[in-house]
Task: inverse folding
């Protein structure tokens, strides 16, 4: 399984300062779909269906935006994804 970045589906809708950040997941060819999907559901608190859609997008397009919101929350999401050595980037 590879990981990558393309679209953002789960959005932090809080109206706090510092929103507009995103977590991009990249294709790495070193994880299975199941591993990526399990970690996405843990990090983003999304459905398995949404995690599968993102993992396929990452695999086919090279990357996907998997979360948008405040910088602090994006960094927390990225940290969970990095726990299994997924390649992610937090950007504005």
Result:
């Amino acid at each position: 399984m590879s990981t990558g970045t393309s679209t953002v589906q789960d959005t932090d809708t809080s109206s706090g300062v510092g929103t507009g950040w995103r977590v991009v997941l990249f294709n790495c060819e070193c994880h299975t779909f199941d591993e990526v999907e399990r970690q996405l559901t843990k990090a983003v608190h999304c459905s398995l269906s949404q995690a599968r859609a993102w993992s396929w997008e990452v695999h086919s397009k090279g990357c996907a935006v998997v979360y948008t919101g405040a910088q602090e929350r994006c960094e927390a999401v990225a940290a969970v994804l990095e726990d299994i050595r997924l390649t992610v980037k937090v950007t504005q």
